[in-house]
Write a structure and sequence with these properties.
about 170 residues, alpha+beta, Aminopeptidase, about 20% helix, globular, binds coenzyme A
């Protein structure tokens, strides 16, 4: 007889909390399941490797990490900003608003830190709803599809120039 599927909560009921040290392996497993092994070759990874996140947020279902996002320090044309990603939600809990709440948490965090802009590499059809637009003037440290390099700016014109670890 096949095993009964593991019970999993409702996405809307799960609080978003700060990532703790003990979440590390759960976050890695979730991200690996969502993106696969190729992600380390990506230009986005060059902005993260060797850096310490400004913040990380998770949703847990019991002990299991079912949602995760991290925010990293970068500079765009010399101006301090935040780089969002990776963001991942357990496939069984998608379309329940968890992804949106993780993004909003990052935007609030960036604002609280006085950072005017949040940059990411991702799908415009998803991130457009949060105010992300093409980052026309941002030059990443490697190849990236310009349609996927997105920025959300709190006030004023979007910062432009070389993007580097902050
Ligand atoms: C992207 C992701 C984090 C969204 O999490 P989520 O909890 O499902 O997000 P929400 O519930 O807030 O939003 C779901 C909506 O976004 C849409 N959506 C999800 N991913 C999308 C994408 N890549 N492009 C366009 N729309 C997308 C869903 O179809 C759904 O639409 P609906 O509201 O019309 O049903 C999740 O799908 C995921 O982990 N994906 C795999 C990893 C990934 O692709 N990360 C982002 C890189 S661009």
């Amino acid at each position: 007889m096949p095993a009964a599927p593991e019970s999993i909560g409702d996405a809307a009921d799960l609080p978003i909390v700060s990532e703790a040290t003990g979440d590390r392996f759960g976050v890695e497993a979730l991200v690996a399941a969502a993106f696969g092994p190729g992600r380390f070759a990506k230009t986005a990874e060059r902005l993260r490797e060797g850096s310490t996140p400004l913040a990380g947020f998770v949703a847990r279902d019991g002990q299991r990490v079912v949602g995760s996002v991290r925010l990293w320090p970068i500079r765009i044309g010399g101006e301090p900003a935040a780089f969002l990603g990776p963001i991942a939600v357990d496939a069984r809990l998608r379309k329940g608003g968890l992804g949106a709440r993780l993004v909003e948490q990052c935007l609030a965090e960036a604002q609280a830190r006085g950072l005017r802009a949040v940059l990411l590499v991702g799908d415009a059809p998803y991130f457009g709803r949060f105010g992300f637009v093409r980052a026309e003037g941002a030059r990443l440290p490697g190849p990236a599809d310009p349609k996927r390099v997105l920025i959300r700016t709190q006030t004023g014109a979007a910062p432009a120039g070389a993007v580097e670890k902050g």
